[in-house]
Design goal:
single chain; Maf protein; alpha/beta; 5 strands; globular; 6 helices
C-alpha cells in the first residue's frame, strides 16, 4: 500500500498535469483529506478549499445539502454524500471534488448504519460522478478515519490520472 503522503504527492502532480483543481467536503474525517493534500509542497496550485461540515446545519449552510435529504436518508447516506460533493463544486473554483460522511465511532451506530459505515462521492465539472461505500466495521475511530482518507485520495487520484 502506498503511504498517504506519496499518494497525495502523486495526486498533486496528476492534477498539475491535467489542469485540475480540487475541493473537499468532509464530515467524519474533519479535514484530514484537505490536510493530506496541503501537506504537499506546491499543492496551492491544485487545491482550492476544504469544507468541514460535521453538523447537519453545516452541511446545509455551507454545501446546500437539503433538509429533506437529511431527514429522509440521514447525514450518513449516499444521497447526502452526493449532495455534499455537488455543493463543494458549486461553492468553489474546483474542477474535481470529493465528499465523505460516515460513522467513525465508537458510538453513533445502529443496525442499519453501523460504526465504520462511510459514504464517499466524487464529482467533476465534466460530469464525472462516482460513489463508494466503505464498511470498515468497528475497527476504532482512528482506523475508520484513516481508511476513509485513503479511499478518498484513491478516488481523487484515479480521476486525476484518467
Amino acid at each position: 500500500m502506498m503511504p498517504t503522503y506519496e499518494k497525495a504527492r502523486r495526486l498533486v502532480d496528476a492534477c498539475n498535469r491535467a489542469g485540475l483543481v480540487v475541493a473537499t467536503a468532509e464530515s467524519c474525517t474533519g479535514g484530514m483529506i484537505a490536510a493530506a493534500i496541503t501537506d504537499v509542497a506546491g499543492s496551492s496550485t491544485v487545491f482550492d478549499r476544504g469544507f468541514v461540515t460535521y453538523s447537519n446545519e453545516a452541511k446545509q449552510d455551507m454545501l446546500g445539502v437539503s433538509k429533506k435529504t437529511l431527514d429522509r436518508f440521514g447525514a450518513v447516506s449516499r444521497q447526502a454524500a452526493e449532495e455534499m460533493v455537488v455543493g463543494a463544486l458549486s461553492h468553489s473554483c474546483a474542477s474535481l471534488a470529493v465528499s465523505v460522511t460516515g460513522i467513525a465511532g465508537p458510538g453513533g451506530g445502529s443496525a442499519e448504519k453501523p460504526v465504520g459505515l462511510v459514504h464517499l462521492a466524487l464529482a467533476g465539472r465534466a460530469g464525472l460522478k462516482r460513489h463508494k461505500t466503505l464498511r470498515c466495521g468497528d475497527i476504532g475511530r482512528d482506523a475508520v478515519r484513516v481508511a476513509t482518507l485513503e479511499a478518498a485520495l484513491d478516488m481523487l487520484l484515479e480521476a486525476a490520472e484518467a
